[in-house]
Design goal:
The protein is α/β, with parallel strands linked by helices. It contains 13 helices and 19 strands. Bound molecules: nicotinamide-adenine-dinucleotide. Nicotinamide-adenine-dinucleotide binds next to loops. This is Gfo/Idh/MocA-like oxidoreductase N-terminal domain-containing protein.
């Protein structure tokens, strides 16, 4: 007898959610996209697969649950709706893959963890780097003690973001939206991935990330149209006393900046970049290694793993525990003052496709900081 395929409901399909629609309709992922929830009444104009496949669209999750259900909910809605939506899905007996960041308070994350335990349905988070098999292989080696204790970590990563990005919704670049915290920033959202991956790599078990104790933060805003910061230079201390430096920014000249990471251990130094092989290491005895023999997996490995978990009951590795340190860190960082960048350093740039602000020599300044393990003001760099 043939088994029924998992039924997927996608919540929020007009932004990043379009990639999920594409993945679920252009190839066989072993599941059916049977419904979409989205408040946009014109969604079908932007997502052609809705008409082609005659996928029913509900304006709210309540409207969906009044008529139907699913085996897996994929939540790609704005961050400030995640908690309510996750809880609703779990309470309706539906497993959840929720996009990152899961939420903005440790308390809400704990409530979701509890609901998952109570209902027996899994909750996993859409940090795609955690699902990469080379990242998981590296983590296994770290846990096996192959490199000794971690001593120092420094990473920089930025995406250029301009008017199109900030105008795409009512929460981009905002600290609050309609009375709810959103804390939207490169560190909270677009460039959260590499920081979260570091905490995941350094976590004490395969499912957990390392706890963050404190942060020294320098936050700047170059784009005068946004509320929150768009440049962050951050020195974290983990609960084990490990310094973890993270630099991220949106007002940069190039479309992508990094990621470049240097992870120093007692017995090895591991670097990573966008180039292949992504992770390269040198042991203290000079021998080199990398993870090029490990297939990282599919682009939408997170979705494949979540679909498989519906049948296996074995939740993917990236659960709430893997997101908690980032959630905590976002709040610690957000408590710091935001300094406007001096206007003579900020250049408005117009291109055929977008308008954006860029800060003169920002990338070079922050690389200089990363190389010197410093925050800008410690090197006499005055952005504000
Ligand atoms: N993993 C990644 O690489 C990645 C990349 C981009 C975005 N994201 C995450 O995806 C999520 C969504 O981001 P986005 O940029 O697509 O946001 P967006 O605001 O641009 O789009 C969200 C979609 O949700 C819909 N929506 C809004 N409120 C809703 C509600 N109450 N109920 C149902 N639908 C609603 C909107 O109409 C829209 O279609 C965020 O958590 C974001 O961080 C992840």
């Amino acid at each position: 007898m043939s088994k029924t395929r998992p039924r997927v409901v996608l919540v929020g399909a007009g932004g990043y959610g379009r990639l999920y629609v594409e993945a679920l309709t252009s190839q066989d992922m072993g599941a059916e996209l049977t419904a979409i929830c989205d408040i946009d009444p014109n969604l079908a104009e932007r997502v052609p697969q809705i008409r082609q496949r005659q996928i029913p669209v509900y304006p709210t999750l309540d409207a969906f649950f009044a008529k139907d259900s699913a085996d897996l909910a994929v939540l790609v809605s704005p961050v400030h709706f995640h908690t309510d939506m996750v809880l609703s899905c779990l309470e309706h007996g539906v497993n959840v893959l929720c996009e990152k960041p899961l939420c903005l308070t440790v308390k809400e994350a704990a409530a979701m963890q509890e609901a998952s335990k109570k209902t027996g349905k899994f909750l996993c988070i859409g940090y795609q780097l955690n699902y990469r098999r080379d990242v998981q292989a590296l983590k296994r080696d770290i846990l096996l003690g192959r490199f000794g204790k971690a001593k120092h970590i420094a990473v920089y990563h930025g995406f250029r973001r301009g008017a199109a990005y900030y105008a795409r919704n009512n929460w981009a670049g905002r600290i609050t939206c309609q009375g709810r915290e959103v804390f939207d920033s490169p560190f909270t959202n677009a460039c959260a991935h590499h920081f979260q991956m570091l905490t995941f790599l350094l976590g004490p078990t395969m499912r957990t990330a390392c706890d963050i104790e404190s942060v020294q933060a320098e936050l700047y805003r170059a784009n005068p149209t946004i509320e929150n910061y768009d440049i962050a230079a951050l020195r974290f201390q983990t609960a084990q006393g490990l310094p973890l430096l993270y630099y991220t920014a949106h007002p940069i000249r190039t479309e992508f900046w990094g990621p470049v990471g240097v992870l120093e251990f007692e017995n090895a130094t591991i670097t990573y970049t966008r180039e292949k092989p992504v992770f390269r290491g040198v042991m203290a005895d000079g021998s080199a290694f990398d993870y090029s023999d490990v297939d990282p997996g599919a682009d939408m490995q997170k979705l494949m793993d979540a679909i498989q978990a519906v049948d296996s009951g074995d939740p993917p590795l990236c659960g709430v525990e893997a997101d908690l340190p980032h959630i905590h860190a976002v709040r610690l960082v957000q408590q710091n003052p935001i300094t406007p960048v001096r206007s003579e350093l900020v250049q408005p740039v117009h291109t055929d496709t977008d308008d954006f602000y860029c800060v003169k020599n920002l990338e070079q300044m922050l690389v200089h900081c990363a190389e010197n393990r410093a925050l800008p003001s410690e090197l006499g760099i005055q952005l504000g």
